[in-house]
Amino acid sequence: MAKFDVYDLEKKKVGELELADAIFAGEVNEHLFYEVVKAKLASDRSGTHAVKNRSLVSGGGKKPWKQKHTGRARQGSTRASQWVGGGKAMGPKPRDYSYDVPKKVRKAALRSALALRNQDGKLVIVQEWKPAAPKSSAAAKVLAKLGAKKALVVDAGANEALAKSVRNLDGSDFLAVEGLNVYDILKHDILVLTADTAKKLEEVLA
């Protein structure tokens, strides 16, 4: 079991927390980052790109000129792709780019991301953070004291006051523990967890 310092919001050490080595101090497999981040970015694509083909372009129902004896090339419709204003040949159509990564791979990648932040000294665990009301300026001061001006803060989704306080800060974001993912961990410089959140992640990723 690895031991982690637990701080209050003034970054004064208030205790220690033992967490499983396999979750927070294991081997870092960077290839797993590539796999899960690629899958997330692909799933985020809207895939709504589209163009009109000749069947969707209006007009052009009549043959422009007769087939023979005009000295011009044969044409069947002004909606054909070679005409100005005609339909696009073999253009893009709406599609779904998303695909699933196996659950074991997602869990292993998340363990690697947590281990990476721990190795880099960019994992901060606080005892608790439950503001009485949403206030971004107060949250900014806390993050500054923690040395985490641009951080990903993770706690229970029910902590709405904290979520609203952090989400307006430039470069920082809040995620419910259920939505923690590799992309957001790697995107932010510092990962801030509450003690309860760290224990929950240990249970889920075991």
From TrEMBL:
Family: Belongs to the universal ribosomal protein uL4 family.
Name of the gene this protein is made from: rplD
Record organism: Anaeromyxobacter oryzae
Subunit structure: Part of the 50S ribosomal subunit.
Keywords annotated in UniProt: Ribonucleoprotein, Ribosomal protein, RNA-binding, rRNA-binding
KW Ribosomal protein (keyword) present: yes
Name by which UniProt lists this protein: Large ribosomal subunit protein uL4
Function: One of the primary rRNA binding proteins, this protein initially binds near the 5'-end of the 23S rRNA. It is important during the early stages of 50S assembly. It makes multiple contacts with different domains of the 23S rRNA in the assembled 50S subunit and ribosome.
PANTHER family listed in its UniProt record: 50S RIBOSOMAL PROTEIN L4 (PTHR10746), LARGE RIBOSOMAL SUBUNIT PROTEIN UL4M (PTHR10746:SF6)
SUPFAM superfamilies given in the database record: Ribosomal protein L4 (SSF52166)
Keyword RNA-binding included in the entry's annotation: yes
Family annotation (InterPro entries): Ribosomal_uL4, Ribosomal_uL4-like, Ribosomal_uL4_dom_sf
